[in-house]
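During the no-cost extension, the postdoctoral fellow (Dr. R.K.) reprocessed legacy sequence entries with the updated structure-token encoder. One reprocessed record is reproduced below for audit purposes.
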Amino acid sequence: MKKITITTDFGVFDTIQELPSDIQNLMQEAVTIRHKAYAPYSNFKVGAALLLDNGKIILGSNQENAAFPSGLCAERVAIFQAGAIYPETKILKMAISAASENSTTSAPIPPCGSCRQSIAEYEIKQNTPIEIYFMGEIGAIYKSDSLKNLLPLLFDKKFL
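Re-encoded structure tokens follow.
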């Protein structure tokens, strides 16, 4: 048996104030839209803000449903909206903020597996990495230069 080692690198910002100003603004948009999430079952609210190459910012918040599989995460709400409205536009950057109504989230919260796969689809489609910044309610912000850091063995169309 052979062994492979996969390593990933993330940037870490201790506070929002350390982020570049354009990312501070994008993260603030994610925080603001997070408060509008519909999360009556999990009490876990997530906001996502995308910066497109046309300068537009697309927002999404998680939308739950009593039939749990029918809800959508904030990241996918934003990505699918961007794909529907601006199908030929590239997603440059994504900011994600997550908070629980039951306790303070101080660790960075990355996208779930389904969201990672959806982000991967758009990163491959546009042939350009998407910078992803993610945080909890407070605390450090992690930066990934590409979705491939979060999902190094991704599934894509070349397997079909």
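Helices lie at 21-34, 74-85, 113-126. Strands lie at 11-13, 44-52, 57-61, 91-100, 131-135, 141-144. The remaining legacy entries will be reprocessed before the final report is submitted.
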